[in-house]
Amino acid sequence: MLRRACSVASIGNIFHFRAGLDRLLAANRDRISFSATASDLCDSDIAYISADVPTDDEGESDLAEITALIDRISLHLGDGAVLVVLCQVPPGFTHSISTMSDDRLIYQLETLIFGRAVERALTPQRFVAGCADPRKSATQEIP
Q1: Alpha-carbon distance 36 to 17, whole Å?
Q2: Is residue 25 within a helix (H) or strand (E), and if so which, with residue range?
Q3: Residues 118, 122, 125, 130: what is their CA dihedral angle, to the nearest 10 degrees?
Q4: Radius of gyration of the chain from Cα atoms?
Q5: Max mean pLDDT range (11-20, 56-65, 111-120)
Q6: What is the tens place of the pLDDT at every residue in 68-97?
Q7: Claim: this prediction has a pTM higher than 0.85
Q8: CA-CA distance, 11 to 108, in Å (whole number)?
Q9: Pick the CATH number of 5-122 from 3.40.920.10, 3.20.20.210, 3.40.50.720, 3.40.50.1010
């Protein structure tokens, strides 16, 4: 069971209204925290990175900021904590991350529909699962 989730944010307030988000936050207030300090992640079971990826006119993405964020946050996660990357990165991106072991780094496909973020998160249409080593079975339960 998830003990605690923490979002490292540069702000403590939520500026974007999403239908149902206020009710969801109120119901889980004791299990969610926001902080501008990465070290506050040490007691969390799961951490999400969800940041925009700058992309140029040729469709090339600058992944330096996402990689630096992963490197910074991974230093503060507890031994069993999982880091979820919820950013628009190219296939194979997580294979380039050396600061996290494969069993603690998860990529979540972004399937957001504007105005329906909470609904999509709580009742996803599909799950896509895989594993870091294609020679191994992906039958292990995801934490």
Answers
A1: 20
A2: helix 21-27
A3: 110
A4: 16
A5: 56-65
A6: 989 888 899 988 888 888 888 888 888 888
A7: no
A8: 23
A9: 3.40.50.720
